[in-house]
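ZP: hey, is the beta-D-glucopyranose complex queued? I don't see it on the tracker
AM: it wasn't, my bad. submitting now with these inputs:
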Amino acid sequence: MSLPPARRRPATALALCVAALALTVPAAAAPEPVAASATAALPYQDASLPVPDRVTDLLSRMTLDDKLGQMTQIEKDSLVPQSDLAAYRIGSVLSGGDSTVSPNNAQTWADTYDSLQRTALTTPLGIPVIYGIDAVHGHNAVRGATLFPHDIGLGATRDPALVQRVGRAVAEEVSGTGIDWDFAPCLCVARDDRWGRTYESYGETPELPTAMTTFITGLQGETLGAGPASVLATAKHYVGDGGTAGGVDQGDTRVSEAELRAVHLPPFKEAVRRGVGAVMLSYSSWNGVRSHANRYLVTDVLKGELGFTGFVVSDWAAVDQLDGQSGFTGTEITTAVNAGVDMVMVPHDYKKFLTLLRGEVTAGRITQSRIDDANRRVLTKKFQLGLFERPLTDRSYTSTVGSAAHRELARQAVRESQVLLKNDGGILPLARSARLFVAGKSADDIGNQSGGWTVGWQGRSGPVTDGTTVLQGIRAAVTDPSRVTYDRYGNGIDSGYSAAVAVVGETPYAEGRGDRPNGLGLDQEDLQTLARLKASGVPVVVILVSGRPLDIAGELPGWKALLAAWLPGTEGAGVSDVLFGTRAPTGKLPVSWPKSAAQEPVNDGDGKDPLFPYGYGLTYAGTDPTPTPTPTPTPAPTPGACTARFRTASAWQGGYQAEITVENTGSAPLTGWSVDWDLAGSTVSSLWNGSLTTAQGHATVRNAAFNGSLIPGATTTFGFTANGSAGTPVPHCAGS
Ligand code: BGC
Ligand code: BGC
């Protein structure tokens, strides 16, 4: 037999011997694929046919077991023996946060992928598996990969084009290990910083994650599979994961439908518009109903109203959580599949899962057409990705893992993500010739600066991967490294230094383990280090390495400068680029910075008075000519300028649904707006994302508190359904 070709090389038809065997689970050892003639034997193998035709042909040849397998995703390490992949017709494999290979390098990951894929191809129909992983800030499971700032830092850059380039770099590194699918981006809108996943959010307003959906285009390319190294993206976690009461991970988001649509839905809408291939559901609930059981949100809103044609994947063991007991039941599976889940991240007990799923189908509780719809969605993505033509790793990308070009891009992202919050007396930028004392637990710790999801689910402190620590970046930037003294605890400092640089903050965590309901303060070690530095009388510059704003209001008066570095990843030199003024600081807060944890939740437009507002960020001139934003005089703001555009989303006999998009056309933030238009005799039956009054055939919609404020150029949309016909309204917008 000849081996299947590597992915993304020129396509040759992969013609496998096809025997339409009806198998029941578990199957006998499946036959080896046999390479037949150079031309495609069957329509689904013919890459020149349109994808929908190939899917239809393939579906017509699949047994029920083949179809159930396509809806099944399992953890690589729970696959024992490997031949089960073919025997059970498993459609997808993932690596969870702690799944690894040994030795952990790109080559072994690629070999592991190819080995699994070769096994999958031994089934009669030779349907390739699709392999997914959490490459959430770079290809973070792989030691030696380039790690970019976590999403909160990318949000601070306010640079969607940069984020698209980051997505492209991640796609190349992921492709170099064979992997087809990334469980990113998280489009969570983090509304309460006590939530342990705040750092996975681009920011607290719907606009910021919406703008950063460029990451999806970076991963997939403009059209999935059309270009090289195209990786399927996942918009997660649908929907409302960042809005849970108290910031509790996997908690309950208690908001009206209008608020859910206004705050949490917009990034998903934009992701769908960009053609995102997959959507992962959220563990969280909306007003007590779990997303994985919410047919209205998944089938009606996501697939219907938003027109999502990709597939919906459940979160890790989330279907099994539906009844609150561990262990799958048929009822849980039926609830999830009928809500609209197309692929279940099982992830362990695939035998039990498949037996139960089969039972639900044969009992008629899940229809054949639901199974076919799920398969059509999954298979369409496999065809579009080119998996049938090029199932194996394209090794030409393997050397991009941790490449100099990607690290340079990451360093750019780091410097653009730095947010300068305080700079008394212009102590920053530091002189390169200054005598410096560097301290703090995160000054020389690649694990701390990378955070969670770094070579392991929770991440950990220490030299977990290759990169440049903040201290190494500082030493590389100064004129004479012997003038830089480092002591983690701040011991040995005396008054002879120009500045003390304290790199303090959070140690790594992921998901629920990062929830901090009891406060967001600095730990004892940091407080003691800071106290030692301060006692020396040397001006203290704090670099905060953290996944979110911390409760620092009490200590801030004792610091001369504060730079929020977020979780920069492996390229610590990006921090020193800003510290020494090679580049001007340009980052803006992606979240409101609370006065204390007790002020949470605190968000833009909610009328609270944070320590630093959303969008805050100071600057100074950089020595590098490229981005020097100061001292550009800001033009006098023109408050309240806005426009409104009307669009009929759908119309039917006797009614219609419409959307009105409000744009801030002024040069100052728009905090209040109202839109009015002539209803042309129609009557509004429901309206979301605004508050409505009608008088004399005119509708007036005003912003609600949760709309927040719109930065210049930003848009927000409200929608409504109405009885009658829309006519040709010309809405008028007035701002305040
Ligand atoms: C896995 C993660 C997963 C988590 C869920 C961990 O063991 O490695 O991928 O997200 O469990 O609880
Ligand atoms: C997380 C997801 C992740 C999945 C797989 C879950 O615990 O919530 O974000 O994609 O595990 O690792």
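AM: back. The chain is about 25% helix and 15% strand.
ZP: great, adding it to the tracker
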